[in-house]
Amino acid sequence: MQIPVPDDLAAICREVVAEGKPDAAWAEIEAGDWFQTDTGTGGYEADEHAFIFSVHTSDNGELWLPLTLVEAAAVARGERTSAEARRPE
Fold first, then answer.
1. How confident is the model at residue 81 (pLDDT cuts 50, 70, 90)?
2. Radius of gyration (Cα) for the chain, nearest Å?
3. Where are the domains positioned within the chain?
């Protein structure tokens, strides 16, 4: 399901882009809870080659919002405002 990218996660995407690291560098420092906001937590998952954010829903549920580095850059530039979310595995 497509959901809007929360503003605090868009800010994290801007931080990620500002770091200027390629996927391989993010994979070396992989951490699932590196980023923590009011919306949720997240970090880079090397197995998925993406940043995975755990987003809390209004009904006390949880969705995972994966963003590749390319997708995160599009969010950071404001070209992408939504992303495909999934239930936790």
1. very high
2. 12
3. 2-84
